[in-house]
Structure formats: structure tokens, C-alpha cells
């Protein structure tokens, strides 16, 4: 158990949010107690966001303070998944290498100043809704193309972290369905790969690639790969609507649900504990709640946490009644386990085998 003196900002059936600097808050988490850190830190952007960003040159040193705590709290076979956008070098049409410098440093041995993590895989979040910036190079001089991908580093202290792609299977393509129905003759491909008859077997779905797609964009990118395709601009979502209605500024750099959903399913099982130390509008917590994972969220800015409560209909008394009834029906008899803000005794969640 943790000895934190912090009171949660709000708590739900499966998780809690805390207002404050995660560098401090992390100290209250037990060693080796977290199954997954799924987060998107502030990036080193050329154009500063309202929540503040660190310059590319100082970025790696700034991030390492947090990374050392991530390494301490993560379970030996847990995963640390970091969504980190690229940026440009000021005044020229060339890309900064800061996010590559970061991953190299995180994977250096501890005695060489790193965190001794392993890169399990690099994933990609495909976001076609990104603006065509920097305008100078993309829309004015037309010498660069539109940036549409964020790298997502999947790291772990272990060489073989806990994961199962069976939890993120995609529907088979029509071609594969056809092949399973009509059979396939084992043969050597032009690439010289031997395709065996095992390709005929129905395993319940296709193994996704490193491109993480949202339903809206799946057709654009063809067969699922290691790219997560999703925009974070949906004007239909309840979070944005409720922020608008209550005059709260929506978070400017939210995850699409598809991203934490893919990562949480891939790297954890029900009852595992997920931490987002840069929670923003708490998309990670909301998805973890739905997937019945325990979760902890830290955020520095109270406005973002206030708005994030709209992601949990049970915490939002002004949510429209029809919507609430629908959510309850979808919960399928699941009890409404939300505890009112600041009435909870338990501080941080501890995992089953936390020490
Ligand atoms: C890129 S945003 C995360 C957005 C989030 N994934 C979402 O879906 O809304 C990064 C967040 O980190 C927060 N932040 C920056 N430094 C922090 C710190 N030291 N402790 C806690 N939160 C911090 C910022 O306020 C910002 O909301």
C-alpha cells in the first residue's frame, strides 16, 4: 500500500485522478506496482500549446526525471507506452530528432545514464486530421508534405513484456475470408517466403500491425498494421459537447479513444493497473474504466481535470438523462460504483501483487 497524503480529485469504480505535478505524485506509488503506463507527455513543439512545452534541446533531460520514476513503479514485465509527436527544427524544413534521442536514452543501460528499458515495438498513430504545419514549408512553399503520424514507443524493463495480440484482433479482410472458405495451396511467394496451409485456419481475427486505426480511418489504410489511425477532433463526442455547454476549454491535444484502447487491450488484462502521469482530459482513465482495468491519472492543470469528469457520465449530474439511461443499459446491470468526489478512504490503487 502507498502512504500518500493526497486526496483524489475524483474517483470512479475502477480508478482515481490526482491534481498535481506527477514528479511528486509518482513518489507515492509503490515500487513494481503498475502493469502499464500509457501516456502522452507534453511534446517539444515549435508552437507552444497552452499547457506549456519544453524546448526540444532540453527535452530528454526533462523527461528522464519522470522516466526514472516510471522505471521504479512499473512491474518487471509491465509496459511503458509513450505517444510522442515529432517536430521541426526552427526556421528550416528539417525534422528534429528529439523523440529518437529520447528513445535511445531510455534504452541505454542505467549505468550509462539511461533507464535500461527495451523497445518492444514502435507503433504509429495515424492522425489524418493534423494541420498542415509548418505552413511555411507545407502550404506556402509546398516543399514538404502534411505530417500525419505520431510515434508511439512501446518500452519495457523486460525483453518479453506481458502482451497478447489475441486481445486486439481485427476482423478478417474479405480476401482472407475467401481464402479460408475456398482453401489455399501452400506455395513460395515472389518474396521467397513459404506460405503454408496454416494460412487457411480461422484464428478468430486478423493480427493487427503497428498502425493503430480508428474505425473512421480503417478503410483508408487497408489491412490493419502497427499504425493507430484516429483523429482527436470528433465534434460528436460527449466530452467536447459538455465542455462547450459548461464553458470549459476542451483539452487541445487529446488522445483518440482508439489509442489507449489498443494499448490497454494489448498489454493488460481485467483487474490490471494502468497509470497515465500526464492525463490531460483523462482519455486513458475513461477507456481503462470501460475495460475494467484499475487506473490512476495525474494532471497538473485543474481545468483539464474538471472537464475530464464529463468522460464519466456518473460524475456529471447535468449529463442528459437519455444519454445516462443509455450508458446504464449498456453497462448491462453493472452497478454504478462511482464514489462522490473526496469521500474515498483509499488513496492509490495497489495491484494484486504490488509490494
Ligand atoms: C499531451 S497532453 C495529454 C493529453 C491526454 N492524453 C488526453 O487525452 O487528454 C499532456 C498533459 O500533461 C500535463 N502535464 C505537463 N506536465 C505535467 C506534470 N509535471 N505533471 C502532471 N501533468 C503534467 C499537461 O497539463 C497536459 O494536459
What can you tell me about this protein's structure?
This protein has two domains: 10-168 and 206-335, Vaccinia Virus protein VP39 (Rossmann fold, 3-Layer(aba) Sandwich), CATH 3.40.50; 172-205, no CATH class. It is built from eleven helices and twelve strands. The protein is 27% helix and 17% strand. The strands form two sheets. The chain has a ten-stranded mixed sheet with strand order 1-2-12-11-3-4-6-5-10-9, sandwiched between helices. The chain has a two-stranded antiparallel ribbon with strand order 7-8. The radius of gyration is 21 Å and the shape is globular. Bound molecules: S-adenosylmethionine (SAM). The site of S-adenosylmethionine has 20 residues, from helix 1 and strand 12.
Outline of this structure?
This protein has 355 residues and is of the alpha/beta class. The protein has eleven helices and twelve strands.
Unreliably modeled segments: 333-355
Q: Could you tell me the mean pLDDT?
A: 81
Architecture (CATH level 2) name of the largest domain: 3-Layer(aba) Sandwich
The major beta sheet can be summarized as: 10 strands, mixed
Overall geometric form: globular
CATH homology group of the largest domain: Vaccinia Virus protein VP39
Number of discrete helical segments:
11
Q: What class would the helix/strand composition place it in? A: alpha/beta
CATH level 1 class label of the largest domain: Alpha Beta
Q: What is the rounded distance between the termini?
A: 7 Å
- Identify every distinct bound molecule in the structure, by name, code or SMILES: S-adenosylmethionine
CATH topology label of the largest domain: Rossmann fold
SSE sequence, one letter per element: EEHEHEHEHEHEEEHEHHEHEHH
Share of β-strand residues: 15-25%
- Share of residues in helices: 25-40%
Overall tally of domains: 2
DSSP E strands, number: 12
- Rg calc: 21 Å
Give the spatial strand order of the biggest sheet: 1-2-12-11-3-4-6-5-10-9
Amino acid at each position: 500500500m502507498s502512504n500518500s497524503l493526497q486526496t483524489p480529485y475524483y474517483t470512479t469504480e475502477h480508478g482515481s485522478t490526482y491534481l498535481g505535478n506527477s514528479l511528486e505524485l509518482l513518489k507515492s506509488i509503490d515500487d513494481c506496482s503498475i502493469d502499464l503506463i500509457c501516456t502522452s507527455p507534453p511534446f517539444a513543439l515549435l508552437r507552444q500549446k497552452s499547457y506549456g512545452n519544453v524546448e526540444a534541446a532540453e527535452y530528454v533531460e526533462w523527461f528522464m526525471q519522470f522516466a526514472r520514476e516510471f522505471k521504479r513503479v512499473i512491474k518487471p514485465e509491465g509496459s511503458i507506452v509513450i505517444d510522442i509527436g515529432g517536430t521541426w527544427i526552427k526556421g528550416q524544413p528539417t525534422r528534429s530528432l528529439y523523440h529518437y534521442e529520447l528513445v535511445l536514452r531510455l534504452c541505454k543501460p542505467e549505468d550509462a545514464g539511461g533507464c535500461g528499458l527495451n523497445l518492444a515495438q514502435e507503433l504509429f498513430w495515424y492522425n489524418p486530421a493534423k494541420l498542415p504545419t509548418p505552413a511555411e514549408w507545407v502550404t506556402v512553399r509546398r516543399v514538404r508534405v502534411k505530417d500525419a503520424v505520431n510515434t508511439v514507443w512501446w518500452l519495457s524493463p523486460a525483453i518479453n513484456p506481458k502482451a497478447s495480440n489475441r486481445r486486439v484482433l481485427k476482423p478478417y479482410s474479405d480476401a482472407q475470408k475467401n481464402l479460408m472458405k475456398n482453401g489455399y495451396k501452400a506455395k513460395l511467394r515472389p518474396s521467397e517466403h513459404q506460405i503454408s496451409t496454416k494460412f487457411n485456419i480461422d484464428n478468430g481475427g486478423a493480427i493487427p500491425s503497428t498502425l493503430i486505426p480508428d474505425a473512421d480511418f480503417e478503410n483508408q489504410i487497408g489491412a490493419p498494421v502497427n499504425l493507430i489511425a484516429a483523429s482527436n477532433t470528433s465534434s460528436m463526442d460527449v466530452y467536447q459537447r459538455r465542455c462547450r455547454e459548461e464553458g470549459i476549454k476542451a483539452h487541445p491535444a487529446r488522445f483518440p479513444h482508439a489509442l489507449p484502447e489498443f494499448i490497454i487491450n494489448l498489454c493488460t488484462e481485467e483487474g490490471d493497473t494502468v497509470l497515465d502521469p500526464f492525463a490531460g482530459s483523462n482519455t486513458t482513465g475513461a477507456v481503462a474504466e470501460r475495460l475494467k482495468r484499475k487506473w490512476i491519472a495525474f494532471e497538473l492543470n485543474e481545468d483539464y481535470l474538471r472537464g475530464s469528469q464529463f468522460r464519466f457520465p456518473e460524475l456529471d449530474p447535468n449529463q442528459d438523462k437519455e444519454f445516462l439511461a443509455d450508458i446504464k443499459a449498456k453497462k448491462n446491470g453493472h452497478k454504478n460504483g462511482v464514489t462522490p468526489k473526496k469521500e474515498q478512504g483509499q488513496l492509490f490503487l495497489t495491484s494484486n501483487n504490488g509490494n
